[in-house]
Amino acid sequence: MILPIVGYGDPVLRKVGTIITPDYPNLKETIANMYETMYNAYGVGLAAPQVGMPIRLFVIDTTPFSDDEDLSSEKQNDLKGFKKTFINATIVKEEGEEWSFNEGCLSIPDVREDVYRKPTVTIEYCEEDFVMKTEVFDGLIARVIQHEYDHIEGVLFTDKISSLKKRLIQKKLKNITEGKTFQEYRMKFFGAKKGR
């Protein structure tokens, strides 16, 4: 089932996600719905707060990035088919020299900005089997993980840009909060007037 994606301004996007257990209600269905919602919106990642659930869960599929012709065939292969569910994740370490990449977010449509992040990340998490694992990721996969991880920490990519750039996008952010934006995917807007 395709879920509505929560737009910028909704308080759920600012909540730190709570840890969940294997008996979390309808977990398998929730994860399946999140993947379906992400694919419907042509995203590469989606966190539970973006569909209104303040829990520590996000899903990723970096396959769309594998079409980038600027990447080596090895990097393209790494990205193709990288599909993973992260439950109760904790980033243990971020390493390397920060690099810039133009990021967007399904909850903040029509806004893209360069964001600096470290290239390598060590993360502890569970997949659907709830067995804890620790893995190291780098490059674009690490960046998508960091972006989605921020969501379960109540952080948005717009928090990581300069104050000047924040001022330049204020009007767009206000329009999103009020539902004055159009997307081809379902959205729910916190400040939209009823009857719109």
TrEMBL record:
Record carries keyword Metal-binding: yes
Q: Which UniProt keywords apply?
A: Hydrolase, Iron, Metal-binding, Protein biosynthesis
Keyword Iron listed? The answer is: yes
* Short name of any one Pfam family annotated for the protein: Pep_deformylase
Q: Which residues form the active site?
A: E148
User: What GO annotations for molecular function exist for this entry?
Assistant: metal ion binding; peptide deformylase activity
The coenzyme or cofactor needed here is: Fe(2+)
Query: How and how many cofactors are bound, per the record note?
Result: Binds 1 Fe(2+) ion.
Enzyme Commission designation: 3.5.1.88
Task: Please write the reaction equations for the catalytic activity of this protein.
Answer: N-terminal N-formyl-L-methionyl-[peptide] + H2O = N-terminal L-methionyl-[peptide] + formate
Q: Which GO terms describe its biological process?
A: translation
Which EC class is this protein assigned?
hydrolase
Record's family?
Answer: Belongs to the polypeptide deformylase family.
HAMAP family registered for this protein in UniProt? Pep_deformylase
Protein name per the record: Peptide deformylase
Species? Flavobacterium reichenbachii
**Its gene?**
def
